[in-house]
Amino acid sequence: MKKILVTGATGQIGSELIMTLRNRYGAGNVLAADIKPALNDELTQPGPYYRLDVRDLSTLKQIVTANNIDTIFHLASLLSAVAEQKPQQAWDVNMNGLMNVLEICREYRCALFFPSSIAAFGTETPSMDTPQDTIQRPTTIYGITKVSGELLCDYYFHRFGVDARGLRYPGLISSKTLPGGGTTDYAVDIFYAAIKSQHYACFLRADTQLDMMYMPDALDAAITLMTADSTQLKHRNAFNVTAMSFTPQQLAAEIQKHIPEFTITYSVDPLRQAIADSWPRHMNDSAARTEWGWQAQFDLPAMVKDMLLNMRLLN
C-alpha cells in the first residue's frame, strides 16, 4: 500500500483508521473521503480530505486517478438500524457504491478492503461457533447488502483479478466516535451514560449475547489482512473475526467494577432486538487465525478498563 483512499471516513471505523494509516504510511499518502463534511481537523490536517458520494462514479474516478491510488478501504454504508428505516437508500448506497468502487479497482488495479458484518448471517445460521463457511440468509436489508457485497468481491477477484479482501466484523466499540445507527451501538452508548449519569436504559434484552470487538483490534485486523501474503489466503474476503462475546448484563457488571453506582434498566426496541436475535452469538474465526495470523488483544475486562480511561480523558 502506497497511496490509500478511505471512503466513509467520518464513520466509526474510518475516523480512526485514517489516523492509524497516516501514522504508518504518511499523512499525504492517505486520503479521507466522505459525503459529510469533516468532523474535525484530524481528518483534514495534515492529510487530504475530499467530499465524495460513492454513488458518483465520475468524482470517484477523478480522485483515484489524480492521486495514483493503489488501495481503497471502502467503508461508506448505511448501518443496520438506519438501513431498516431506509431500505431503498441502503441498497443504493451500499450496493451501487460498492459496484462503483469495484469497477474503479478493476480499471486501475487497486486493492480493495470491504468490511462485511455478522449481519451477513441469519436465523438459519448456527449461532454459536458460527463457521466461516455456512448458510447465509440474512433478514435485514443491511445484511443482504453485506452478503451480496461478499459475493461481488469474490466475483471481481475470480473474474477480473481484483485483490479484494474483507472481514466479517462483530459489533465494534470505540471511545473516540459516536455510534452511527448500528444494533450493537448500545455497547458504546452505555459508557457515555455510565460516566455522565451513572444509569443506562438499554434497548436490547439483558441476555442478548453478541460478538464484539474493540476498535484497536478492528483496525489491526484490517491492516494485517491487507498486508498479508496473498498466496496464503484461501478465502480472501469475508473472514470471520472476533475478540469477545457478551450480553448487556455482563457488560454492565464489568463497568460496575469501576463505577459501582452505575445502574442499568431495559427498554427493548423491538426492531433492534429482532435484528440482534438474527445474528450469531459467537463466530468461529479459525480461518483468519490460520490464513493470516489473526489474534485479538482485548478481552472484555481489558476493553472496559481502556474505554473508561480514554473516555474520562476525552470528556
Write a structural description.
- With 315 residues, this protein is α/β, with parallel strands linked by helices.
- It has two domains: 4-170 and 215-240, Rossmann fold; 172-211 and 243-281 and 297-314, Alpha-Beta Complex (UDP-galactose 4-epimerase, domain 1).
- The chain is built from twelve helices and 14 strands.
- The chain has a seven-stranded parallel sheet, with helices on both faces. The chain has a three-stranded mixed sheet with strand order 8-10-12.
- Helix 2 links the parallel strand 2 (30-34) and strand 3.
- The model has no long low-confidence stretch (mean pLDDT 94).
User: What's the CATH class label of the largest domain?
Assistant: Alpha Beta
Order of helices and strands: EHEHEHEHHEEHEEHEEHEEHEHEHH
What is the radius of gyration? 19 Å
Alpha-carbon distance between the two ends = 35 Å
Beta content: 15-25%
Helical region count? 12
CATH architectural designation of the largest domain: 3-Layer(aba) Sandwich
> What class do helices, strands and sheet pairing give?
alpha/beta
Q: How many strand segments?
A: 14
- The coarse silhouette is globular
Helix content: 40-55%
Q: Strand count, sense and closure of the main sheet?
A: 7 strands, parallel
Q: How many domains is the backbone divided into?
A: 2
The CATH homologous superfamily name of the largest domain equals NAD(P)-binding Rossmann-like Domain
CATH-defined topology of the largest domain: Rossmann fold
Q: pLDDT average, as an integer?
A: 94
Walk across the major sheet and give the strand order. 3-2-1-4-5-7-11
> Which runs of at least 5 residues are low in confidence (pLDDT < 50)?
none
